[in-house]
Amino acid sequence: MHGLTTLYICMGSACHQRRGHRLLPALEALIRQHGLAGRLVLKGAFCLDNCQRGCSIKCGDQVFTGLNEQNVAGLFEREILPRCQSN
Ligand code: FES
């Protein structure tokens, strides 16, 4: 039985300016693609305190930075997917 994993997407102004909101549809597509609907929940977060490092997301207590539409899939498969499977 798998638990619920929450992924926070930074909606702070610095990340927003770097088009962080574009990560949302990309992550939604990845969730569908990996059959994680209902197991991985996306939530908006205020500034994740990593404004200098590019768009940020947070999973558990770890923050991942420097994300864009191109590299988010790789990060998702490397870091987020294993967390969902172990939850
Ligand atoms: S606005 Fe996203 S880390 Fe600060």
Could you characterize what this model shows?
The structure is a single chain. The chain has 87 residues and is of the alpha+beta class. It is built from three helices and four strands, in the order E-H-H-E-E-E-H. It has one domain. It has helices at 13-17, 23-33, 72-86, and strands at residues 5-10, 40-45, 55-59, 62-67. Strands 2-1-3-4 form a four-stranded mixed sheet. The N and C termini lie close together (9 Å). FE2/S2 (inorganic) cluster (FES) binds next to helix 1.
Features:
single chain; 87 residues; alpha+beta; 4-stranded mixed beta sheet; 3 helices; 4 strands; 36% helix; globular; binds FE2/S2 (inorganic) cluster
In short:
This protein is α+β, with helices and mostly antiparallel strands and 87 residues long.
Relative helix content: 25-40%
Structural class: alpha+beta
Q: How many angstroms does the end-to-end distance come to? A: 9 Å
Radius of gyration in whole Å, from Cα? 12 Å
> What characterizes the major β-sheet?
4 strands, mixed
